[in-house]
Amino acid sequence: xxxxxxxxxxxxxxxxxxxxxxxxxxxxxxxxxxxxxxxxxxxxxxxxxxxxxxxxxxxxxxxxx
Length: 65
Known about the structure:
Strand order of the largest sheet: 1-2-3
Mean pLDDT: 95
Structural class: alpha+beta
Largest sheet: 3 strands, antiparallel
Oligomer: single chain
Order of helices and strands: HEEHEH
Radius of gyration: 15 Å
Distance between the termini: 19 Å
Helix content: 25-40%
Number of helices: 3
CATH topology: Factor Xa Inhibitor
CATH architecture: Irregular
Shape: elongated
CATH class: Few Secondary Structures
Number of strands: 3
């Protein structure tokens, strides 16, 4: 059986933690930053963890994690 292909778009957006959770970078920190509060920008710097429903969908796109 041939190797499964990884969806490259998903591989660029998601990464897996050691425990198998799916980590992503939060949106909203690329441009138009002047109107956003410093607290909001500070919280956006940290990655987020996908919830269970979206995690299952993302893991299908990343067969080899």
